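seq:
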Amino acid sequence: MLLVSVHRVAATVAEKRDLAVRTAAGIVDMETHAIATAAAAAGLPCRAVRVVSDDAAQPLPAEVAALARPQSAVRRLGAVLGAVGRRPSAAVDLWRLYEHAVVDGRTLAAALERLCGEMADSTAVTAARPAASPAGSAADPPPAP
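struct:
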């Protein structure tokens, strides 16, 4: 599935729909592009494992964009308190978002565990194969674990 990376939160259904139409992407995120760019600049391979927490039909609470901006913990707390003061139901919306983030974090951790296990298994199989011998000479056996 194609992923598009954006510089700000796509919070509304209309924004998400517009991104899907313009890019043909099925997933929108904010971090993967920056990580892939840094990896490419360093000459490193990059793979992304993402968990989708909101689909295109779900608007995010309006306060999320303000909370996603880079800021100190004190300013972020002020933004939360201000949001709840202006719209008390924001507390419920933000709590639901938090609960989804906890579940999504666990889902991501499980996926990463599986991926790391698969990579370790793959590396073990590769390491166990003797290297090709030049000019038909006997290959040294792999080192003992």
